[in-house]
Amino acid sequence: MLKLFNTFSKKIEIFKPINPERVTMYVCGPTVYNHPHIGNARPAVIFDILFKILKDIYPEVIYARNITDVDDKINDAAKKNKENISNLTQRYSTAYEEDMKNLGIIQPTFIPKVTDNISSIIDMISKLVELNHAYVANNHVLFDVESFPKYGEISKLKQKDLISGARIEVAPYKKNSSDFVLWKPSDNDTPGWSSPWGRGRPGWHIECSAMIKKFLGNSIDIHGGGQDLIFPHHENENAQSTCANNSILAKYWIHNGFVTFNKKKMSKSLDNIIILNDLKNKYRGESIRFALLSAHYRQPLDWNDTTMMNAENSLNNLYSILLNNVDIKPKISRQTNVEKNLLNDINTPEAIASLYSTARDLQKAKKNSLKSEIKGILLRESYFLGILQKEPNEWLQKSDLLSLTDKEINNLIRQRSLARKNKNFQEADRIRKNLLDNGISIKDEKDETRWTR
């Protein structure tokens, strides 16, 4: 039984699809004006796991993750680079897909691009105008927020609480400061398409609504993305889709938390944005993926100097256990503890703990028949998490040898002994966990602490 936290209801709910024979999911993809960063990777990895879970339960799962290749940020980047807009968007779309492949993410059913779906966007805008949910002003088409009394039901924001200028474009031609653009005019230097309202281009929010309708239907089971998209993007999507289709847009709204760096929000001004293209030059995709799963998806994930080292060393330890059992033929397994953890609101930290437990059981097993059974469980568990997908020998041969040195290990053990002597058991436990995360087992004896890799 799958349970998910629904942003709409603010509670964990049992997942009951609209049609159990055809489950639908849409996740907002990247705006392709630069290389993707670690924040872009988090929803891609989380919803990849959810896609696998759904596919294991239901006969058909349709998953769409879009590419936004029409946006003013793209126009600005192309102008700054003195580059053709199509070349820029194609280059960064390719970079994104390569990064996703490196993270072991399986291909969604559809990856629609905005530029391939302009006619569907125009059709939806025309319907909204026809139904008096949108109006034309100053060569723009805008959604009339007051025409939808339930506006704010996703973000739980009230009209009176909305602050003009806070991610909302202020313009004198709007009836209401919260009204948002569905279509805007384009000059000769800006991408544009013919429409009933003149040459122009779509607003950001309408793009997703139109592609959802075209590829998945009027109403879908799951709409996902980062928490930063709840308002205004998902709020506006919900409003325009509900009004155009006379039906709910999504039954479940799922949002992942932010990725921070050393407890600070990633931003250009702080120069602390972690680009996947830079990260993969030093670390393997599976290690990056493992690190992204270390915190519950709804919680912030803090990235720091030890994040990748811990992930790499944890995988080295797990692959070593598989290598020690490389000749054991795995027995086909049914539902595992990892799946039970993931069915409980995609609880990846608990799932990783369960996988560690299975790996330890494999390490301790004596009989080949038991090893076969446990190895089958471990491989099934690792499939859903998207790790341990390489050959153990290949992985360990290419290991970047990021393990702690003997000197570093002995230094940490001395620090732990001092912490225990001072009755600072929280610090002692933290150091012990750090050692375990790096594949180091310790055993306290009468006069000393012994360690093994």
Query: Kindly, what is the distance between the CA atoms of the first and last residues, rounded to a whole number of angstroms?
Result: 39 Å
Assess the beta-strand content as a share of residues.
5-15%
Q: What is the CATH superfamily classification of the largest domain?
A: HUPs
Major sheet characteristics: 4 strands, parallel
Order of helices and strands: EEEHEHHHEEEEHEHEEEHHEHHHHHHHEE
Assign an overall shape.
Answer: elongated
Strand order in the largest sheet: 4-3-9-10
CATH topology tier name of the largest domain: Rossmann fold
Give the number of DSSP strands. 15
Q: What is the structural class?
A: alpha/beta
Please estimate the helix content: 40-55%
Which residues sit in consecutive blocks of at least 5 with pLDDT less than 50? none
Total helix count?
A: 15
